[in-house]
């Protein structure tokens, strides 16, 4: 394992090389304008009446955007009577992560769009992204090699069909072509994407590149969402969208192995179905949204109860084709004022079979608030505060207590108690330079659900993010 300073140099040089390669492609990005300063979860713009074809190849045929996020993270030391192969280390140096992404969209025909996202990622998380179920850096993947790697993040086709003639303006954005967009539409997306691109959205708590860093705050913690190690899958998504309601359903692939990099293309043996209903409303003239999510994953998962009964507690020896994991998630957000909003999530899965893709959480509840900096004359800044409690099923607890471990936690023993996490971040925005700098603080109690290793663990981070 290289030392900290050389890894930092490798990551930064990897990001610069990717930026230089993007510049050499001689594709001119859209001209930068003065960034808007909307409050969180701003109300949707009013539709306008259609006076021409809703969608044509003459309206912004190309969209090109770029992001780079660098996160340096460190945790305080703590004492523990014992540790296992997947425990959070009691003492370690800071860890650096980097992601660099190009977002390329091309309008093909009326309602048809192609999306391509090459991405570079590198670095490592604290303790190799192990030891905390609600891990502290959403930009860190569970990959041992810290060297930056170029790979294909997204490649998909999207077709939209307008259901009514009314239109609303849509701004050019990441993987989104600007122009007039139908208010009521049906859409089909097929290819490689992230399930989190379309499901479990939340205006205040979803993107670790600009919002909260913790895994159990960027998504419903108990949603074992279908993805390879880097967070992407292959499949198809059908959407029915109106201003008040949206219904989304997807069928996608899952990894060949738990936390595996390769997806299982034997669809009859392994797949995932996700369904979500979204309802948007106004309360006291302030917008709010509620999302109800359900999921069912099918894969060759191991069984916690059977693994606990084995002398070696090897869950891989209990894997069997066709096992399922089912669960649900509820997400809500509500604007209180033009500068302040609240959010909450609650999620659950049955917890009988091993975690396959996301993280080892079977129950999770979170609550938080986000404010702009308008009161102190920094209207584009953001201040976020949140708390989250994570838990696991009885079968999962017994397995870890017997000495078993998954791909993210396992202390060799377990005196169970819920894992508690709080997080606060402040994002200093520099709109003129398309840059934000965000100090972040997290307090973790009982990492890995273990009362014998209570901490507290204090985690400090500094995030540098650029996007245009």
TrEMBL record:
Residues spanning the signal sequence: 1-25
Annotated GO CC locations: membrane
Pfam assignment, any one: OprB
Annotated region described as Disordered, given as residue ranges: 28-59
GO molecular function term, any single one: porin activity
GO biological process: carbohydrate transport
Keywords carried by this UniProt record: Signal
Keyword set includes Signal: yes
UniProt-recorded name of the protein: High affinity Mn2+ porin
Lineage: Bacteria, Pseudomonadati, Bacteroidota, Cytophagia, Cytophagales
